[in-house]
Amino acid sequence: MSGKAYFISGIDINCGKSYITNLLASQLEKKVVTTKLPATSDNKPIDLASIDEQFNELLQKNDIMLIESTGGLMDPIDTYYFNLDYIKSNLIPLLLISSSRANSINQTLLNIELCKHYSVYLHAIIYNELPDSDPVIAKNNYEYLQKYLQETMPEVQLIHSNTLAKENEMSTFVKSL
Hints:
With 177 residues, the chain is of the alpha/beta class. Helix content is 42%, strand content 22%. The protein has helices at residues 17-27, 48-61, 83-89, 104-118, 135-152, 161-164, 172-176, and strands spanning 4-10, 32-36, 64-68, 76-78, 81-82, 94-99, 122-128, 157-160. Strands 2-3-1-6-7-8 form a six-stranded parallel beta sheet, with helices on both faces. Strands 4-5 form a two-stranded antiparallel sheet. Strand 6, helix 4 and strand 7 (122-128) form a beta-alpha-beta unit. The longest helix is centred in the C-terminal third of the chain and has 18 residues, at 135-152. The radius of gyration is 16 Å and the shape is globular.
């Protein structure tokens, strides 16, 4: 039996990709594996065929694979091959991590537009309310994204990290994965 993969990428550094990945993995009542997609380093080429083979083996053994990006959608895996290219070529649904920082609306909308332009399936945006956030900005950002998605992309789920983090209560979103 083959599992389902989800690609997790963030709008910015320190937006909580690893936190959300671990939170999702801990809440799922299925056999889950988390892995990271390697990025280019030291100008050494990345063997994408080998990565695909390893990921396919993991998918055969697990119900869900959460692939956490190194960097954002436009960070390179290889010289001219980006995380976004990998997602598109492998038809992996994207879980985009947004945050409650003051500049997150701009970055989130830019990432949404990238997904539209590249025809990447944006499964959900997970809004990670960071502990040091201004509560007014955090509330306004979430409400703006909620309205924006309802009006422009109603098929994309917007999930608040507080919903995912509730102990003893798995969200509908987590159950749907």
